[in-house]
């Protein structure tokens, strides 16, 4: 059984699958359309039993900010050249003319 994306109760996306396959490091996660994506698991949650199988959540690494390269990018912005990127909480309020994603 492959790893799939799942949203936790608090709204965080995780990799979900058999506990033996959920490991720290790079893994392939299957999307809803059956394509796959490489993700990095930072930590593994405590295993639990679901339908008689031992399952676990793998907590994914947050993407890096396109402006300052710090982890935690979750806001979409345009830089001074009109290039779309993701920024962290700190860079979120910077004026667009100071942002550079290139």
Descriptive account of the structure:
The model has no long low-confidence stretch (mean pLDDT 91). With 102 residues, this protein is an all-beta fold. A 5-stranded mixed β-barrel has the order 1-2-6-4-3. A two-stranded antiparallel sheet has the order 7-8. It has no helices and 8 strands.
In short:
With 102 residues, the protein is mostly beta strands. The chain contains no helices and eight strands. It has two domains: 3-60, no CATH class; 62-102, no CATH class.
Strand count: 8
Number of domains: 2
**How far apart are the first and last residues' alpha carbons, in Å?**
39 Å
In percent, how much strand structure appears in the residues?
A: 35-45%
Shape: elongated
Strand order of the largest sheet: 1-2-6-4-3
Please estimate the helix content.
under 10%
- Decide which structural class fits the backbone: mainly beta
Radius of gyration: 17 Å
Q: How many helices does DSSP assign?
A: 0
The biggest sheet, with number of strands, parallel, antiparallel or mixed sense and barrel status, is: 5 strands, mixed, barrel
Unreliable runs, pLDDT <50, ≥5 residues? Answer: none
Q: Provide the succession of SSEs.
A: EEEEEEEE
Average pLDDT score: 91
